[in-house]
Amino acid sequence: MEPTNHYGPTAARKHGKPGREVRPKSTTIDIHSHVAVPPAAKFIKPHLDLATIPLAHYATPETKALNQKQEADRRSRITQYDERLKDMDDQGVDMQVIMPPPPQCYFTVPAEYAVPAIRMVNDGIAQYVAGKPDRFVALGTVPLQDGAEAANELERGMKTLGFKGAQILTNVGGKELSDPAFAPFWAKAEALGALVVIHPNGFTQAQRLSAFISTTSLAIRSTLQSHCIISSSTACWSGTRI
Questions:
Q1: How far, in Å, CA of 171 to CA of 175, rounded?
Q2: Domain extents for the chain?
Q3: What CA–CA distances, in Å, run from 92 to 27, 89, 187?
Q4: Which residues of the chain form beta strands (DSSP E)?
Q5: Cβ-proximal residues to 45 (8 Å cutoff; 6+ apart), any chain
């Protein structure tokens, strides 16, 4: 059976007028959307070990085929403007907060390659926003496998590129976000008043759900909260907006 995705209106409710006609007069902002940066993907490809990424490693062939089709279906919308802006207008969305797709965080790649790759990602996101600054604002990402480099890139993103903060994943190569190695990032995020979005991209022990893995698999937020509360390394989280 050929894999298929359905992108039309949900069948779970009735549909009336288009979004623009029924939205409030105030500005409507979509706070969760993604923009891909193909040059960064090309740069990192020789250094990317799919065996280290649960999303890619544990998915069944059927799941991989469906995810690949979904990526192909959406590619123009996450790299260009025309279809995306039409969708936004049809839905009554005035602005979007954009961020990289979770696979472009590159948290399982050695820092020597991840650092320049993530700079390319952030520069690409900033360029996209600059093309339509009335419709988009951005969050970047950081090379969190190196806490000091992550802090530096967060500061560059916010002070030079105009980002509001950063998107990170739920773990870094299996390490919890409360690991002391990441303290420089959290301290910088608090100091800058950064918004930090924690986005799932698969999860640890992913073999348990190999038939159902996708980039939107739910992260168990209570686990993250427990690490925030219990770990002695998380004092710097107290003022961070997550």
A1: 5
A2: 34-237
A3: 9, 5, 37
A4: 29-34, 95-99, 136-138, 140-141, 165-169, 195-199
A5: none
What does the pLDDT look like over 74-116, one tens digit per residue? 899 999 999 999 999 988 899 999 999 999 999 999 999 999 9
Measure the CA–CA gap between 40 and 113, rounded to whole angstroms: 11
The total of other beta-carbon atoms located within 10 Å of residue 195's CB is 18
Higher pLDDT: 191 or 19? It is: 191
Q: What is the pLDDT of residues 118-139, one digit of tens each?
A: 999 999 999 999 999 999 999 9
Specify the fold of 34-237: TIM Barrel (3.20.20)
Q: How many CB atoms lie within 10 A of CB 170?
A: 21
Q: For residue 190, which of 147, 132, 240, 241 has the smallest C-alpha distance?
A: 240
pLDDT tier at 149 (50, 70, 90 boundaries)? Answer: very high
**CA distance linking residue 109 with residue 143, whole number of Å:** 9
Helix (H) or strand (E) holding 45: none
Q: Is 77 helix (H, G, I), strand (E, B) or coil?
A: coil
Tokens encoding 177:
């976000």
